[in-house]
Design goal:
heterodimer, A: 265 residues, alpha+beta, Alpha-Beta Plaits, 2 domains, two-stranded antiparallel ribbon, 14% strand, B: 389 residues, mainly alpha, Formate dehydrogenase/DMSO reductase fold, globular
């Protein structure tokens, strides 16, 4: 065999080999879900997790700030003062910003300035997952949580363009120097160049704990399995009129809002 | 053939070193971006794609437009383009290389970029964009190099290359269609969520690409003994004219739908770009400059008497190129992010390091282009410019 021929064969087989592996990986997909160890018996399971935010129960600024603080502190979310660079998982927005298509000249001042907590909607049909070129963001088949793999994310930010809720933040720099609260060693910090967002506290659910914000909310946030007809969340949804952000886009958001009556009128 | 790029006049070498200097400055800026992160750019949580991705988008169009000279020559046997098909193919090569570099410098974790191949995701348009761009690069390298090699030897190109040429003609529109799909399929981004997006992309590509080719043809004629030919230049002018008209028409369709329907989400980005929104109007002067250039260009192009004057044609080509560069290489991408999903306005402007990196990518593209054109022109000067059929 001539040197030239050898190089040709070597080159072609390398290309085929690399391509071949990815085909095999793709075919294997779905045949098993990664589970290297038995699940914790305390783990809370659901077919589809969802959250109801009861605006009637938020009385003072402190009430929602408690939820934001606990979320950002257990997940080591940095405090970056520059709004262009900030990272946020859960935060308040006024009605006109949380529900932009619903603005009304005659909406009462009370509702206009009501701080709605906004976060990732863990959509049933998430556009971010659809566009991600590496499956770094994916919908967990077991319970519908839209997850992030920070080690796989290439930082292309396609998911940020795709998310109609502005729920995603990008690490424009190393976030670690900006973690002002006490570091939670139980939850990983992030590095520069990856996208992050709320993950419905999957790490707490695995230990049988409610999401941190729900726990801190004094009943203003209701969390549970919407596919379960007898769950508390379904009872709340049955007995209240709720709205969701931009449902017309077909994303199927899993975060519901109860607006309630205006006691301050 | 590469040896032909190693001998050249003083002007040639001065140009090469000028480009290398720009690349050097940009590379230093990139090293800083690599260590600090994309925070050195003007991008933000709200405008999460900026100059890099918008330049990428524009350059995919330039790459695709190579087909505008390849198609008439190979499918319609239009002989006047025989001399310049290679210029179109080599322009496509350098444009695709720039596209890939712009994607690379935009990555938050550039070392993980191969994850796109390791974990191929068939529902992501970005996966297909990678496939079509790499494929298009390979096709043009293969075709350009083979046909030029044959011309140097004074023989007809081998027969096996023909199917690849046909494939590349079909492939060219696909790269820009897929790039339009990056934008046109995103719920909640009204400015991009438009069925005409891909058509608009192609129209602007087939106007701006041949306009650039025209400018390059004028430069080549000035600095070398190779003449692309009067007829080829005039035909390119006609192509630019028709596609520029189509492009302006498509933009008009978008404006009609937005403003006659009066749906706020559909109007906001246009209002921001052309009039300013909530007191923010950083892009307004640029967008109007783009519109004025488009009007000037069309004024020169639609009248054959004026277009036949090569000075007027050159001015028109420059006007078309910059008009579309602003429109697609800046406004289209930035405008889609403003206002943000909370209907707040966060403005964007590239920083100096971001601009240097972008300039370096352009310089690298022009370096590749210069070397390829130097080779092509040297071969043409020897062969008299006529490919053997």
């Amino acid at each position: 065999m001539k040197r030239r021929e050898f190089l040709k064969i070597a080159g072609i087989s390398t290309i085929l080999g690399l391509g071949g592996m990815s085909v095999v990986n793709e075919l294997r997909k779905g045949s098993l879900e990664a589970a290297q160890y038995a699940p914790d018996p305390k783990t809370m399971a659901a077919k589809r997790w969802a959250m109801v935010i009861d605006m009637k129960k938020f009385k003072t600024a402190d009430d929602y700030q408690k939820c934001v603080d606990v979320c950002h502190s257990v997940h080591n979310v940095p405090d970056i003062p520059d709004p262009k660079r900030e990272i946020k998982w859960l935060w308040p927005e006024m009605f006109v910003h949380a529900f932009p298509a619903q603005e009304d000249l005659y909406l009462s001042e009370h509702y206009k300035h009501m701080p709605f907590l906004v976060t990732c909607n863990h959509c049933a049909n998430p556009p971010c997952v659809r566009v991600c070129p590496t499956k770094a963001t994916f919908k967990r088949m077991s319970d519908g949580i839209v997850m992030m793999d920070m080690h796989r994310c290439i930082g292309c930010r396609f998911c940020m363009a795709a998310c109609p809720y502005g729920a995603r933040s990008f690490n424009w720099q190393d976030p670690r120097p900006f973690i002002k609260r006490e570091l939670n060693p139980e939850f990983p910090t992030r590095m520069k160049g990856v996208v992050e967002k709320c993950t419905f506290c999957y790490e707490r659910l695995a230990k049988g704990l409610m999401p941190a914000c729900v726990e801190a909310s004094n009943g203003a946030l209701i969390f549970g399995d919407v596919t379960e007809p007898n769950s508390e969340i379904r009872k709340v949804l049955n007995s209240n009129f709720t709205i969701r952000r931009r449902p017309e886009l077909g994303t199927g958001p899993s975060v519901y809002y109860i607006i309630g009556g205006n006691e301050h009128a | 053939m590469l040896e032909k790029a190693l001998t050249g006049s003083k002007t040639y070498w001065a140009w090469i070193f000028f480009l290398l200097a720009i690349i050097g400055v940009g590379f230093l800026c990139y090293l800083r971006q690599f260590s600090v992160g994309l925070g050195i750019t003007g991008m933000s949580r709200d405008v999460s794609w900026g100059f890099y991705i918008s330049q990428f988008t524009f350059l995919v169009g330039i790459a695709a437009s190579g087909v505008m000279v390849v198609l008439p020559y190979y499918l319609h046997n239009y002989k006047a383009f025989g001399k310049i098909t290679i210029l179109g193919e080599f322009l496509a090569i350098s444009a695709v290389i720039m596209c890939m570099l712009f994607i690379f410098v935009d990555m938050g974790q550039p070392l993980r970029v191969l994850n796109v191949i390791l974990h191929p995701t068939f529902n992501s348009v970005m996966f297909y964009d990678m496939v079509v761009l790499s494929g298009y690069l390979l096709l043009n390298v293969l075709i350009g190099w083979t046909t030029l090699g044959a011309e140097r030897k004074g023989i007809a190109p081998p027969k096996w290359v023909k199917p690849f040429i046909i494939l590349s003609i079909c492939w060219a529109p696909s790269i820009h269609t897929v790039t339009a799909f990056l934008y046109a399929g995103l719920p909640g981004r009204h400015f991009w969520l438009s069925a005409i997006m891909a058509a608009r992309f192609l129209a602007s590509a087939f106007a701006s690409g041949p306009a650039l080719l025209l400018i390059l043809a004028f430069i080549i004629r000035r600095f070398t003994k190779f003449d692309p030919g009067k007829e080829a230049i005039q035909t390119l002018g006609k192509i630019v004219t028709y596609f520029m008209i189509a492009n302006v028409f498509f933009l008009g369709l978008e404006l009609f739908t937005a403003f006659y329907s009066q749906i706020p989400g559909h109007m906001h980005s246009f209002v921001y770009l052309y009039a300013g929104l909530e007191g923010y109007s950083k892009l307004v002067p640029l967008m109007w400059l783009s519109s004025i250039l488009a009007v000037v260009a069309l004024g020169l192009l639609v009248f054959p008497q004026i277009r036949r004057n090569e000075t007027a044609l050159a001015i028109a080509a420059i006007a078309v190129f910059f008009s579309l560069w602003i429109d697609k290489g800046f406004g289209l991408v930035i405008g889609g992010f403003i206002p943000n999903p909370f209907e707040r306005v966060t403005e964007y402007w590239p920083t100096l390091p971001e601009f240097s990196i972008s300039l370096a990518v352009w310089a690298f593209g022009f370096l590749v282009l210069t070397v390829l054109y130097k080779i092509a022109v040297s071969v043409k000067e020897q062969s008299g410019g006529e490919a053997v059929h």
